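Note to self: the last two entries modelled the partners one at a time, which told us nothing about the interface. This time every component goes in together.
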Amino acid sequence: MRSHYCGDVNQSHVGQEVTLVGWVNRSRDLGGVVFLDLRDREGLVQVVYDPDLPEVFDVASSLRSEFCVQVKGVVRARPDSQVNAHMRTGEIEVLGKALTIINASEPLPLSMDNFQNNSEEQRLKYRYLDLRRPEMTQRLIFRSKVTSAVRRYLDSNGFLDIETPILTKATPEGARDYLVPSRTYKGHFFALPQSPQLFKQLLMMSGFDRYYQIVKCFRDEDLRADRQPEFTQIDIETSFMTSEQVMAKTEEMVRGLFQELLDVDLGEFPKMTWDEAMRRFGSDKPDLRNPLELVDVADLVKDVEFAVFKGPANDAEGRVAAIKVPNGATLSRKQIDEYTKYVGIYGAKGLAWMKVNDIDAGLDGIQSPVLKFLNEEIVSSILARVEAKTGEIILFGADKANVVAEAMGALRLKLGQDFELLQGEWKPLWVVDFPMFEKADGRWYAVHHPFTAPSTVTAEELAANPGTAVSDAYDMVLNGVELGGGSVRIHKQDMQATVFKILGISDEEAQEKFGFLLEALRYGTPPHAGLAFGLDRMVMLMTGATSIRDVMAFPKTTTAACPLTDAPSLANPQQLVELGIDVTKAEKAAEKSE
Amino acid sequence: MRSHYCGDVNQSHVGQEVTLVGWVNRSRDLGGVVFLDLRDREGLVQVVYDPDLPEVFDVASSLRSEFCVQVKGVVRARPDSQVNAHMRTGEIEVLGKALTIINASEPLPLSMDNFQNNSEEQRLKYRYLDLRRPEMTQRLIFRSKVTSAVRRYLDSNGFLDIETPILTKATPEGARDYLVPSRTYKGHFFALPQSPQLFKQLLMMSGFDRYYQIVKCFRDEDLRADRQPEFTQIDIETSFMTSEQVMAKTEEMVRGLFQELLDVDLGEFPKMTWDEAMRRFGSDKPDLRNPLELVDVADLVKDVEFAVFKGPANDAEGRVAAIKVPNGATLSRKQIDEYTKYVGIYGAKGLAWMKVNDIDAGLDGIQSPVLKFLNEEIVSSILARVEAKTGEIILFGADKANVVAEAMGALRLKLGQDFELLQGEWKPLWVVDFPMFEKADGRWYAVHHPFTAPSTVTAEELAANPGTAVSDAYDMVLNGVELGGGSVRIHKQDMQATVFKILGISDEEAQEKFGFLLEALRYGTPPHAGLAFGLDRMVMLMTGATSIRDVMAFPKTTTAACPLTDAPSLANPQQLVELGIDVTKAEKAAEKSE
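The predicted structure of the combined assembly is written out below.
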């Protein structure tokens, strides 16, 4: 039905007859000539209908937006004055010779030109129309190119695409599982996987050596802007490879993606330990485009009379850190108050500050509400430590180390944006040497997941000092976004049992939940390591989309509903009987449609 | 950790030092020399340990099956007398210089050498070990090659890989949906998709033009040998393409697959109408390797005194068909009785037969219990119609046409096997021109699905004569197996509404279930058509596996359970409260583990 895609017609076709199909993007009758912008997935082309073919012209005059039509015509160069440099096909136009309306369109229920006027709900309800917008179409085409390139790389590197089950057993990876009642075993449930973690480890135990899968994962969480109930992972696992080798392979893959699809050379990714990332950036996924850094000053303020500094400075778990902001001395008291509120969100009780009005004027050049607690020597040492210059402001966080990291890390990002400090377009890095465990509520939690191997210690050493153990884990971070993360896995049963024990998982619970994994570790499990990338987030970053919903064809709302199909919906009562379940508490229909 | 895969070591490496990792497939101490068969996913290689390196030899002597080890050694040619032609690496062996036990193995809970001794349950419980068997490993590697080749073909033909939701709305496609309770909207349920049918149609409405996805689909059915609760489709949809074009593209894809992966040229696929397939083979997925055909003889027996023939022969919905079997006259009465029982399974009330002992001897040469009802002229005309020869048997089915097709179609397949008649290895074809609807229980059912377009008729014509309408649908059949099926879809609202009406779907029900589709058809929907292949079945056929479970990494049992992870399992009561559901009837644990 077509000879070319609309967006592909160009100078080389001038003089040729083409047949195009697509949608009426816009149609205008300008002084007896109809100008039709015809759109398909590859782009737009201008078609011109003159009145000298009256029957065709009449059809052209009757076109309305989003009619699906077939056009036959001859390509011609536009006069220089009418060349449209903003349009891929802007050097040519098609002189229409024939026109068939394939399918008419009623007036649309949402605006195609000013889609900002459409509510998110409207956009999702009429998703098939929203996806016609070239911006949305191009994002999904880009996503398809990403998965295609990823697969090509992994296929050519000996990775096998192996499917793992969607109907599986609940795994305790933090978030809530979606459950699926079993009809055969009434009262029992499958869970949708939060990741194929255990299955990919089992595949390594089977000897598949290199596995990948681009796979849906599921979390029944209260949604945030960048979360969806179902999301997609590029899931990778390897045997007999070290963490260095896994990082090298996957870095090469991502570098290739950026080169091929964005013509960007990411260069070699630097590696940074988790310790350094937390110390310098207050984050385990630092945005390195932001030049601001946290500078530790606890040692300088150990003996001051100011309790806010002195307390944390003398607490083994405390921290006092400064961020200096070029040109920050211009901040008003009101602006500083706003930043103080901002760090409050992250648990900081306040935000001490110090303006450097004149670095050469001693204490007279410094303006700060905390100046009265500090002597000249201490102030000088702080200024020296942060290498302060005239016109800067220094902001201080003092609290438990985790609060300082979180609050000052967030403040750093906000200052970077507010002062437009970001440098460079793409700044990737690896964060490595994570702690194995973190303590909360008096018990240990796995920082990655309970199958992550420690870096060097034996099972006995780990049991003795869980708090200091470093894991053989790695996160790939780009522009402050965690693109993916992974680790070397435990491949010895005694180590796995030790980790479960540290995490407070009883033998009985371990047996019930992971019995098959512990059993599998008995039969010659190879050393293995892997990584999973968040595909949605990766595509979001690469396309510059601001919402994860803009890189998925049919996302859910933030309340996990689909306005298009009206899912979830009421079930057939007979089917519930067959499943052996009953609804104990139902939202009213009115509540749902709100 | 390795320089080569075990299975890849060959003559070209003779003299080189190699480092291999893998599993001990077998280890024998033969007269003071240890022969170790080391296995990885690519194959086996023989490693020899001499006692002249005592420390290494001692380790080698201690090896047991399925230990995971690292071997260093030098490749050498085997003496001619020891070359193993059955082994890819059979011309060489590795003289071991070092040996590290990476991970030991306890004695295995199932037999690796005689896996037939393992029950299906055992194989699934220790799936990670069952998958180590080279036969299983190779099947999954082959499956990965299939998906990779499919993707390469579709990518290079402009198809976009677009993901559709797994948490979606119930669709009435015959089978039962798996339900997923919603926590946000208590009492409401998502359904797991039986196919992405409606979403892929919506993507065409969005203008994506060419879509594909290799995607999990779900059916909560009572399982048969070749069914699984979750299975995988190669799902394809196109806009602006005719059925002929879709068939040409997908045929090219499958032909390419067979060429690339099996070195088989399938040639051009013949097309056969549904009518012809039912008439000649009693099946809409005929196995063309089988030379037997059904021959209609109703017109010849219209006036006989034999009610079994006469009734169906004079019934507009009846049929009388014969199958003649070369060398069939040797069948004993007992064997014929077995076949009579066999067709009884398919609803046939009996099986008339006629042995041709001597074709030249007139009625004297014919042996048949029904001979007494037929005169010489009729017998002659039947013999002439089926072109009978001495030594053949002719078997008759007479009943309603659908019963004859089913029973005689099944009998044809059984006779083909029993008499070893199959010719040729691969016999593909397209079956086309299906009826739009079939009647059962006094109402119409869609033969494909309710979104399938009729071939030529208008909505009004279809409404007037639903029984005679032919759909623009097509099934790809190979060796009697339906590899895939598809159709041109309805792209006009009046046609879709007419089909719903014929199917007895009320306006209200249509609105509730497909309101979004009917709405979407208003806004310039393009003509579109697609197809879906059953990936599991395709891989099964290509690898010669006899069970769908043998081409999936982690299948479920026939009662839809996973003995490996013990899914489904009991849910956390608190989670059920959060979901607003309650279990009304639970299997006892003992029942489940049965």
